[in-house]
């Protein structure tokens, strides 16, 4: 974890370095080829939870990273 909730980020700043997809990219955020999450705009980091349905219609909670 490079940046935490509420911290300011600039364009291209790395927010999370991860192996696998523990966190998912939300608004104004992209995922790199090694699952690194980085900012596309200048703003503040915001972490949220979202419920996602799997292919077999079971739901699970995922952590989403946004920049606002």
Give a written overview of the molecule.
The protein is mostly beta strands. It is 0% helix and 50% strand. It contains no helices and seven strands. It has strands spanning 8-9, 14-16, 23-25, 29-31, 37-39, 43-53, 59-67. It has a four-stranded mixed beta sheet with strand order 1-6-7-3, with no helix packed on it. It has a three-stranded antiparallel beta sheet with strand order 2-5-4, with no helix packed on it. The two termini are 18 Å apart. 16% of the residues are buried.
Main sheet record: 4 strands, mixed
What distance separates the N and C termini? 18 Å
In which order are the strands of the major sheet placed? 1-6-7-3
| Portion of residues within helices | under 10%
What is the overall silhouette? globular
Number of helices: 0
Oligomer: single chain
- Beta-strand percentage range: over 45%
Rg over alpha carbons: 12 Å
Query: Care to count the β-strands?
Result: 7
**Helix/strand class:** mainly beta
Catalogue the unreliable spans.
none
H/E series, N to C? EEEEEEE
Report mean pLDDT, rounded to a whole number: 95
Summarize this structure briefly:
The protein is mainly β. It is built from no helices and seven strands.
Which helices and strands occur, and which strands form pairs?
Blueprint: E1 8-9, E2 14-16, E3 23-25, E4 29-31, E5 37-39, E6 43-53, E7 59-67
Parallel strand pairs: 3-7
Antiparallel strand pairs: 1-6, 2-5, 4-5, 6-7
Descriptive keywords:
68 residues; mainly beta; 4-stranded mixed β-sheet; 3-stranded antiparallel β-sheet; globular
């Amino acid at each position: 974890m490079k940046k935490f909730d509420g911290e300011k980020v600039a364009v291209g700043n790395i927010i999370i370095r991860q192996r696998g997809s523990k966190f998912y990219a939300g608004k104004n955020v992209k995922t790199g080829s090694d699952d690194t999450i980085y900012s596309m705009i200048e703003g503040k980091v915001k972490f949220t939870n979202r419920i996602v349905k799997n292919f077999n219609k079971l739901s699970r909670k995922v952590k989403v990273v946004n920049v606002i």
